[in-house]
Sequence to fold (371 residues):
Amino acid sequence: MSDGQILIDGKAMNWTEKLSRDRPEGGTGPGAASPISAASPLIDPYLRPITYLRVSVTDRCDLRCVYCMDEEMSFLPKRDLLTLEELDRLCTAFVRRGTTKLRLTGGEPLVRRDVMRLFRSLSRHLATGALKELTLTTNGTLLARHAQELVDCGVRRVNVSLDTLDPARFRRLTRWGDLGKVLDGLDVARRRGLSIKINAVALKGENEHELNELVRWAHGEGHAITLIEVMPLGELTTTTRSDQYLPLSLVRARLADEFTLEDLAHSSGGPARYVRVKETGGILGFITPLTHNFCESCNRVRVTCTGTLYMCLGQEDAADLRAALRASSGDERLDEAITEAISRKPKGHDFVIERRRSEPAVARHMSVTGG
Ligand code: SAM
Ligand code: SF4
Fold:
């Protein structure tokens, strides 16, 4: 079987052939009894069920992390953004098609005006059981203010990005952030019962010698923690990726000098590999998109705040769902656009950070696609 082909009844076929077999002209034939309807589950050409949607609700942020954004960023005009109602329609269309996990991200999701209205309306899918998890990734600066409402909307877990516990380094890495606000947010979130995972990007010459301490701290606070390799997403003018890149293989070796790392089979279908740290009892993840291939179990797609659907974080191919959303108030066009896009989900990405290469593998920033 070649790439892009799937095996149906012992016969190799590509996705278009499968669709026309399932939906033959005139509605007769073997596929007619179980036609692929607009509401059929989303399964990609490599037979991966698409059950996890990440939605960037804004490209704006109140911080400027050095690996994510330049200090001077031009953000999208507000009219280009999907409205909260459009975001709801879009998420709901995916939930109808089998999405069970929805993560709102950004930019910083909590800076989007009235974003709690979106959380509130999406929580109806938790109530019906169609959605198993509604969650977010946040930098934590506004978490203290919103933690209770998030809990009220059925959010149970949050990912909070935090790369250092040193206030001066935090300020430098985020260009002006106040570490105290994030720690406050974490404290309130924990007291409100949210389970927390810390995301920390490993940065050469910055936090690299603090990571053991960060793991010990996170576990001491009762949080899980995931370390992330810098990914070549988005043009940066003041620094290059190879200046920032620190292989997690090295980080892991340093951790193993101090801790006993016990491999866990646990998989989220994503790029993280998990271990339990024997001494702390806590969970530690490693996201290593550059040194490991995690694509074979990929169950996710991402939508930007302008409604562009990216089938793979590391590829440029995309589908414009905003046009489909705005073409009519019904969801038929949207469903068709989603079906067509998923039929193009690639097998994997091809990130490379080379020493001599300064341009990013993918031009858009993580804050556009949503991390
Ligand atoms: N503002 C929120 C936050 O920081 O958690 C959500 C959006 S942010 C883009 C999501 C995640 O992407 C963060 O954990 C951040 O550290 C990570 N990130 C951003 N740019 C990255 C890059 N070039 N390589 C690796 N991770 C990156
Ligand atoms: Fe903002 Fe998150 Fe990017 Fe930092 S990583 S600049 S907090 S979007």
